[in-house]
Amino acid sequence: MAHGKSYGMQRSDSGLLCLFCLLTSMTACTASRPPADSAATPAPIKQARETPPPAVPPPGDAAWPPRPSPGTSTWSSLGGLFGNLGKRGGGAIGAATGSIKDKAAPPVKSDGAAGATQVTVFYATDRKYQPESNSYGWQPNRAAPHLSYGSVQVSIPEKRAPGELPLPPWYAILSSNDAQKYVLIQGATRLSRADFLATVKARIQAAPERRAAFIYIHGYSNSFDDAARRTAQMAVDLDIGALPVFYSWPSKGTLAGYEFDENAAEWTQAHLQAFLADFAEHSSATDIYLIAHSMGNRPMTVALANLLEQRAELRPLFKQVVLAAPDINADVFREQIAPRFASLKLPATLYASANDKAMRASYSFADWDRIGDIRAPVVGIPGMELIDASAVIMNFMGHDYFASNRVLLTDIATMIKTGQRARNRGGLKGIPAQAPQYWAFP
Questions:
Q1: Which whole-number Å values give the CA distances from 424 to 77, 204, 238, 341, in the listed order?
Q2: Global pTM?
Q3: Do 169 and 132 form a contact (C-beta atoms < 8 A)?
Q4: Pairing relation of β-strands 148-157 and 184-191?
Q5: How many other β-carbons are positioned within 10 Å of the β-carbon of residue 218?
Q6: Which of 306, 295, 201 is nearest to 248 (CA)?
Q7: Could you tell me how far CA 199 lies from the centroid of its own chain?
Q8: What pairs with residue 386 in β-bridges?
C-alpha cells in the first residue's frame, strides 16, 4: 500500500470469506474464457536444430528432451485472470495499418492471416517443458540450469482498440482460430541459450533506430501462453521500437494457486537474476526496459537490485523500470526494496490504484498492506516515482490497467520513448502541486 496508515485493524474475521466471495464473482465474470484443455489448438512448439555442443556447455544451456510428439498447449483453469480479465481499455492510440506486420524490432517478414499483425516475442522460462503437450506447464524446472529459451509467434487482430486482448470464448468452436477477431498463438520455437542470445543479438543490431528491448515479467495466475499474448499485445500497443521479450516463472495459472505462486516467485528470483545478467551482457541491447506486473514484481525487484549491486557496469543499460500494480508487502517494499533502488539511482516508476480489487484480495488473504494498493493518506516513495492510477477507467478487477488502458499505455510509451520523468510528461498532475510527493492522472 502506498499510504502511511495501516488498515490491518480494519480487517474483520470474515476477510477470508470476502476473499472467497470476490474470487467467486471473478469466476463468474470469466464465463467467456475457455476452461482447461478446451482452447483452440495452437501450432506446436518446434525444437530448433542445434549445433554440436562444446566440450563444456556454457552456463544456462538447457538439456533437450527427446523430440516431442505433436501436442497442444492448454489453457490453465482461469489462468491469467488477474492479468487478462476485461479488455476494454479505452480509445485508440493509433490505428493499425497494413495486413501482416511483425512489430518486433527490427521488422521481419512472416506469414500470417490477413487482418492480423504477426508478432514474434522471445522468452526465457524456468517452467518445466512438457513433451506430451509440447508446451510449458506450471511445474518448476528443478533440473539445473533451470532456464529454457525460445520464441513465440502471436497474431494480434488489427481491428482492435489498444489495450484489448480478445480471446476465443469456450463456445467458439468454429471461429476460435479467427485471427481477425482473437489474439492467437500461431507457433513457437525452442532455442538453446547460445542460439537464443545469437538470434536476439542479431535482431537488436538490425534495428534501424536504436538497440532496445523490453522484458515483461508476468504476475500471479498467469500461464506461459498468457504471458506470450500479453507481451505481443504490449509490443503492438506501446510501439516503442524495442524487441519484445518475456520471462515466465512457474505460476500455477489458477486462482487457487496463490500460495504456490508466492513460493514460485521466490524460487525464480535467482534464475531471473541470472537471465537479466546474461541478457544485459550478451544481447547487445543498450536500452533495456523492464515491465513487471503484480506478483512478478517480487522476483524482479530483488533480482535487479542484487544484480546491479554486484555488477555496477550494467546499471546504465537499464533505462526504465516499471512496477505495475506490485503485489508486494508495503512495509517490506518501503524498508528493504525502495532504498536499494534509490541508492542505485534506477529510474523506476510505480503505478498503484485504489480500485484494484486484486490488491484488496491479496490484502485480505495475507492480512498485510500491498504497495500496489493506494489509499489516502498517500505517502511518496523516496527515489521512486509513484503514480496514482485510480482515476483511469478500469475493467471489473481493475488490475491490468497498465496494459489495458489507453491512458496508461500512452504514459508508459512516452516515458520509454522520451526518457521523461513524470514532471515533464503530459497528463499527470503533481500532488501537492508545489512540491509533489506523488503523481496522479486527473
A1: 43, 29, 19, 21
A2: 0.78
A3: no
A4: antiparallel
A5: 28
A6: 295
A7: 21
A8: 350
